[in-house]
Amino acid sequence: MNRLKKIICAALATVVVLACFTACGEEKKEIDVANITLSKDQLNDVNKKIGTTLGEAKYSGGVFVKLNKNVLYEKYFGIEDPETKKEVDENTRYQVSSLTKNITGTAILQLADEGKLSLDDSLDQYFDASGKRAYLKDITIKDLVDLEVSFGAYNINLLKDDAKREEIRKLIMKNGDLKGYITDFILDFGIDSGSNQAHSNYYLLGVIIEKVTGESYKGYIQKNIYDRVNMKNSTVVNKNQPMHGYNVDTKKWRNEKLNMYYNNYEFMFSSFCAVSTVRDMYKFYNAIMQNKLTKTNLIKKIDDFVTNFGFGFRHDGHNLYSYSGTSLHTSYAYLNDETKEFVILCSNQIGNIRLNATGKAVYNAVNSKINGILLAEE
């Protein structure tokens, strides 16, 4: 009899639990953030917002927006060549400038994965640290990668010094050792903690890549990055490759072949020498997101760094972004490793200080929808 009572009680308890679930509603499944999709109406709204943002900026260039497996927006605006009136398309190349730092940072992590260098290596292992360069013994490759210390000489003291620019001009004309000249200038100038400039740091990282591999930076990234992810339209700065940019302030076109500084590979080097397309840059960033280029997860590795800058990326939680500008083009990349969102803009406009804001506005157009979906599920 007691056994029968226990069975009845258990059955009644089960009924009560089921009734409670029925009354309270079924337990909501946790939404898969990495596989969020937008409805047709949401997509139309996002496209409208992006179009309005680009229109207000009078944008010229390529725009690529992807959310997990879905391309939300890909369009090309303006003309590439003012003489032929050739329109910008998916094959238009841009000097992606500081986005090169992302490529250089990835190469450094590749070499660390292979044991060819360590992020904890001090710089005296790669450069002469005698005399006034003794300070190099206290600086590591990691310090260069995440800007924990900064030389700052390249941008502030090299580009803006008329005497130095004249020496550089003479070196270029004589086919002198420009790369060695710039390297020595950076090292002799020393640390400039207040400048927080990445150019000098990443220039030195490129020199380290060449010392470790015994090959040119250009050759290394071609083989180990461009070729590995099928970036067929990517290369480095080439003075024989005509490229144009439109200055939105002066309203004039500029032919980069006329600029002896910015069309010289050794001068651009590992800080901002990469030339690429919008689609190719997506391939690169997607490979980083999927951990195809490095054994160590680059995105998680940045969390170990002191600053919010690592491998050429600014880092804020799940968001990674990088932006750039030369005397020719401007570029912007925004990634989210949680939602698998990509926003990539490459523009042939010079002096467009609004590009960073434009990129964020494009990103927010998508992200606001994602946040709306997540809030609706809570």
Q: What is the compact description of this entry?
A:
The chain contains 13 helices and 15 strands.
Level of helix content? Answer: 40-55%
Strands of the biggest beta sheet: in what spatial order? Answer: 2-1-14-13-12-11-10
Spans of at least 5 consecutive residues whose pLDDT stays below 50 are: 1-26
**CATH C-level label:** Alpha Beta
H and E string: HHEEEEEHHHHHHHEEEHEHHEEEEEEH
User: Which topology does CATH recognise?
Assistant: Beta-lactamase
Instruction: Tell me the structural class.
Output: alpha+beta
The structural domain count equals 1
Describe, in plain words, how this protein is organized in 3D:
The protein is an alpha+beta fold and 378 residues long. Helix content is 43%, strand content 17%. It has a single domain (38-377), classed as 3-Layer(aba) Sandwich (Beta-lactamase). The protein has helices spanning 2-24, 40-56, 100-113, 141-145, 153-158, 162-173, 178-189, 198-213, 217-226, 265-272, 278-289, 298-302, 355-377; strands at residues 61-67, 70-77, 79-81, 86-87, 94-95, 235-236, 244-247, 252-255, 274-276, 309-310, 313-316, 319-325, 330-336, 341-347, 349-350. The protein has a 7-stranded antiparallel sheet, sandwiched between helices. It has a 3-stranded antiparallel sheet with strand order 5-9-6.
